[in-house]
Each structure stands twice: as structure tokens, then as C-alpha cells.
Amino acid sequence: MMANGEANTAERKQLPKVLAILHQAHSTPGRIGCYLHAAGVQLDIRRPSLDEPLPATLNQHDGVIVFGGPMCANDECEWINREISWLETPLRENKPVLGICLGAQMLARTLGAKVFSHPDRRGELGYFPIKPEAEADALCAAPFPRHVYQWHFDGFELPDGAELLASGGADFPAQAYRYGESAVGLQFHPEVTYQMMCRWTAKGHERLTLPGAQPRQLHLDGWLRHDAPVAKWSRAFLRQWLAGSLSPAGVRERETVAA
Q1: Residues of the chain above pLDDT 90, percent
Q2: Which residues are catalytic?
Q3: How confident is the model at residue 88 (pLDDT cuts 50, 70, 90)?
Q4: Is the predicted pLDDT of residue 249 greater than 50, yes or no?
Q5: Is the pLDDT reported for residue 252 higher than 50?
Q6: In the prediction, which pLDDT does 150 show?
């Protein structure tokens, strides 16, 4: 019979573990971290920008989430280039990968696609409409969000072999993509909480004067109008993404049975 300490250790080893890659000292996984924690998932947080190493293999992890940051995936920075090269590891080992904003741009570069910025540094800051493809709505048991929170000045082209999940306006047409079974890139920020939004718009207030940025009050008002569907989708998506079951056919069958 195991002692309590041994039982707790064994239980921790059996819990799913996700590698969460952050890019600033004060960054957090936001709502995504809360959802995963509530689901009993361990988070292994690493910050390559602070010289924290990424694992050589993911045999101790069940998935990888690469979050955003103020950097550009094209920056000539050793740790950025190292992280882009490292993303070949989860792809090679067929582990679920989720890239958010900068993370999606890094993943796109790993897959050979271009990351671009506009000459006037035009961006998207605030809530913007996107147009999901039918495949996006079939990803999980909740419909893909139609209005999403953006905070970026760079975009990505669709990688060769990737499936476009959602498109945006002329400035940043590719908004979400899927590569293979469980590698997904999102230009927007499903992890943002109201508190995070307040902090970003306060500390980054000078960016709200740049082309494509909405006034601060529209950010906060947008949360009340648009966040509920994003929250519902995020919870449903994370569950199936981590299980490696982002299967359109499977979702349609469950919806048919439910009907």
C-alpha cells in the first residue's frame, strides 16, 4: 500500500502536462491557463526570452502552447530563431501545438510561411470580425468565434499544406489555420481576460494611436459584447485539442446524435 506522498507523486505523473511558452517575465497563460488548471492539466511554463531552455523531446508533455509577445517573428534575435527551429520538435513528434499571435507567426515560419508587417505599422488592436470556414465550426463542440480580440502589428501567410480556418480583412487575411491533425495557429487572443485587457490598454496606450488600433473604451465594451462565445469555444477547443481529437467528422456525428 502506497504512502500518501507516493500516491500524490504517482497521481501528478498521471496528469496531462502542457508546455506553455511565454515571452515576457510578467506574462501569464491567462484564461487558457485557468481552464487547463481546472481540467487537472499541469502547466510547465518556460520563457526562452529569459534563457529558460526548451526540452529536447516532448516525451514528458502532452501538448505545447506558444503564447504571444511584443516581438516579431522576423526579429534577428538568437532566442527567437532558436524557438522557431525548436517548433519542429512537436511537429515531428506529432504532439498537439497551439500558437497564439506571436506563437502562430513563429509556427508559420517553422512551416515555411512568411510573416509580414505593413510599412505604416498598421495593426489590429481591439475586437475585429473574422469569417470562419465550415471546417473551423467543426473543430470542436462549440462554434468558432466571429468577433475576436486582437493585439498585433504583424501577420502571417498561410503555410503550404495548412488548412485555412478563418479569414479577416484585407490587411491581415489569414486569421487561423490548422496543419495536420492538431497543430493550430490563431492570430487572435482567446486567452485574454478582462484584467489583462485593462493592463494591456493602460501600459500600451501609446499603441492605440497607431493605424488599425481602436480606442480603449471600444476594447472594454467589446469584451461585454463578444467574450462569451470566445470563452465557450476556448473551453471546448482545448479539451479536444489536448486529446488529439479535433475531428470534423466526429463533431458532426455527435451533433447529429444530439439532434
Answers
A1: 88
A2: 101, 189, 191
A3: very high
A4: no
A5: no
A6: 98
- Look up residue 52 and give its amino acid: E
Mean pLDDT, rounded, for 5-20: 70
Interval 213-226: pLDDT, tens: 999 999 999 999 99
* CA count, 13 A, side-chain hemisphere, 254: 11
With vertex at residue 115, the alpha carbon angle to CA 205 and CA 65, rounded to the nearest 5 degrees, is 75
The grid cell for 99 is 500558437
Residues whose CB is less than 8 angstroms from the CB of residue 164 and which lie 6 or more positions away in sequence, other chains included: 133, 158, 174, 176, 177
The most distant pair of C-alpha atoms in the chain lies apart, rounded to whole Å, by 67
Residues in the chain: 259
The three grid cell numbers given for residue 79, joined into one nine-digit string: 532566442
C-alpha cell of residue 3: 504512502
Q: Which residues of 103-113 are buried (b: 16+ CB within 10 A; e: fewer)?
A: bbbbbbbbbeb
d(CA 84, CA 168): 25
pTM: 0.90
Secondary structure element (H or E) that encloses residue 64, with its range: strand 63-66
| 124 residue type, one letter | E
Could you tell me if 97 and 63 are in contact, meaning their C-beta atoms sit under 8 angstroms apart?
Answer: yes
Catalogue all structural domains in the chain, each as residue range(s) with its CATH number: 4-258 (3.40.50.880)
| Cβ count within 10 A of residue 188 | 27
Strands (E) located in 94-190: 97-100, 115-117, 124-129, 131-132, 147-152, 154-156, 163-167, 174-179, 183-186
The burial of 242, by beta-carbon neighbours within 10 Å (0-12 exposed, 13-18 middle, 19 or more buried), is given as buried
Q: Hey, what's the cell of 36?
A: 487547463
pLDDT of residue 109: 98
